[in-house]
Amino acid sequence: MSNTDMNMRGKIIFYEERNFQGRHYECMSDCADMSSYMSRCHSCRVESGCFMVYDRPNYMGNQYFFRRGEYADYMSMMGWRDYIRSCRMIPMYRGSYRMRIYERENFGGQMHECMDDCDSIMDHYRMSDCMSCHVMDGHWLMYEQPHYRGRMMYLRPGEYRNFREMGYGGMRFMSMRRIMDSWY
């Protein structure tokens, strides 16, 4: 595999202990259940690409975005438990970005088409809630607080009819950001 192919695929290494110590597991694609590879995870190193990691199997539960870099003790920094159960590689994307956000489930209520980052859905669109969306182009992160803070959700192209049914019942998404190729 050439260096170009490696950079397009991405690579993340998970370590059981802080500061890149202990057993490790290298991942270069999606992994729905990491529990058979390691019992806990306290640090990781992203050598290339971008990844979403999840605290439950099958890409469920709390999510966190990682881009190229070293995370020597990210568990205590983020207040997570000591394990990661699944991870998803975010493919590199170069093109236009387009998403429609809706105030209510099943694409109801106010609708706004977005092509850029938005640090406050409430301020920019006068929407008190965002309960569904349709991602036409690009890969996005939605955050529960304005200014790209709080828990997040990764969105790739597709229809997301009801955030509550996806396990985000208590969350209100208040900002969103494009995952740009410069992050890789």
From TrEMBL:
Q: Does the keyword Repeat apply?
A: yes
Query: What's the protein called, per UniProt?
Result: Beta/gamma crystallin 'Greek key' domain-containing protein
Q: What family does the database annotate?
A: Belongs to the beta/gamma-crystallin family.
Name the domain of life.
Eukaryota
Beta/gamma crystallin 'Greek key' domain: which residues? 10-48, 49-91, 138-180
What keywords sit in the KW lines?
Repeat
A family per Pfam: Crystall
Upper taxonomic lineage? Eukaryota, Metazoa, Chordata, Craniata, Vertebrata
**Can you tell me where the transmembrane regions are?**
none
